[in-house]
Amino acid sequence: xxxxxxxxxxxxxxxxxxxxxxxxxxxxxxxxxxxxxxxxxxxxxxxxxxxxxxxxxxxxxxxxxxxxxxxxxxxxxxxxxxxxxxxxxxxxxxxxxxxxxxxxxxxxxxxxxxxxxxxxxxxxxxxxxxxxxxxxxxxxxxxxxxxxxxxxxxxxxxxxxxxxxxxxxxxxxxxxxxxxxxxxxxxxxxxxxxxxxxxxxxxxxxxxxxxxxxxxxxxxxxxxxxxxxxxxxxxxxxxxxxxxxxxxxxxxxxxxxxxxxxxxxxxxxxxxxxxxxxxxxxxxxxxxxxxxxxxxxxxxxxxxxxxxxxxxxxxxxxxxxxxxxxxxxxxxxxxxxxxxxxxxxxxxxxxxxxxxxxxxxxxxxxxxxx
Length: 370
Hints:
Elements lengths: L28 E4 L10 H12 L7 E3 L12 E5 L5 H10 L3 E5 L6 H7 L3 H16 L6 H8 L2 E2 L4 H11 L23 H7 L5 E4 L8 H7 L7 E4 L7 H10 L4 E4 L7 H9 L2 E3 L9 H7 L5 E4 L4 H5 L4 E3 L4 H12 L5 H10 L2 H13 L3
Parallel strand pairs: 1-2, 1-3, 3-4, 4-5, 6-7, 6-9, 7-8, 9-10, 10-11
C-alpha cells in the first residue's frame, strides 16, 4: 500500500511548530466526550480538558459542550473525543445543522488485544473474526464505519492509527490529520518527596493506569514475582473488573503496593513520576499512553508495550516488551532500573509533546475544514 498523504515523518512524529501561523477564522468550537467518562476518566478525557484549556490561548474559542443544557446554535464545529456508538447520532445531528464535525478517534485495532480484552470465548471469537473480515473488506457496515464516514475530520494520535483507519474502514487519507498526544509540562518540575513519603520508598517500578485486562497488570505482576523489586500499581479498577483487581492482589509479592487512582491535577501524581526508578507498561497496546509522556517529561526510564504506537513517539529512548513475554518483561524492567534519567528525552518530549503543541496541531486541523 502506498504511503498516505497525511504521513509526514517515519519516526518519531515531528515537532509541532508554535510560531506565527496564518490566522484562523474564529469558530465556536464545542468539545464533547463520553457522557459517562468522568466516572472513570482516562486519557481521552484528559486530552479533551487540556485542549479546552489550550485552544483559547491560540485564538480558538473552544469550550466543553453540555448537551443537556444547550443546543448547538452558534457553533461552527463540534469536536468529539473517542470512537463511541453514542457519538454517531450526535455527529449526524450536527451535520444536519450545518456544523463541521471532528473526531479524535483514540482507537487501536489488534487481534491479540481483542482476544485478551473480551471476557467470554464467544466474544473473543466474534471480535477477532470481525477484525479479519474488516481487513478483507473495509466496506463492511458497522456503527464505527458509519461514524468515521459521518465526520469531516479524523484526528488520530499517530500515523500508525491513521493507517488503520484507512485499512479497516476505507477512510480517505485527505480527511485525516494526525494530532500527537500531549502532556502537561508541570510533570517536569515536581520532586519525589511527597509520593515517596506516602509509599515509604523511592526508585520503585511505577505501573499506572486503569486496572483492567487490556492494561495487563496481572501478567506484569506474574512476570516480576520473586525479583524483590518494589512496585507501585497506581489506579482503580474499571467498573466490572473488580475480580481482575482481586486476582492481581493475590499474585502480587509482598513488596507490591496498590495505590488507588490519584486525580490528574493532584501534585502527588507528578511526585510519583519523580520518585519512581522507571515507568512500566506491559499493556496489550497503548496509543501511546499519556502516562508515558508525563513520565518522560522528567526523563524517567520507560518500559513500554510493543503493541500500539509508543515506538512512533519514543523510538530508541524506551524499551519495548510483549505482554505475554514474562522473561522479557523482567529483563527490561531490571535493566531500566539501572539506567539514569535521560535529560535529552525530557527536553524532546517537552518540546514536541506539550499540550500547547497538541493544541497548535489541532488548530491547524480545524483550518482544513473551516
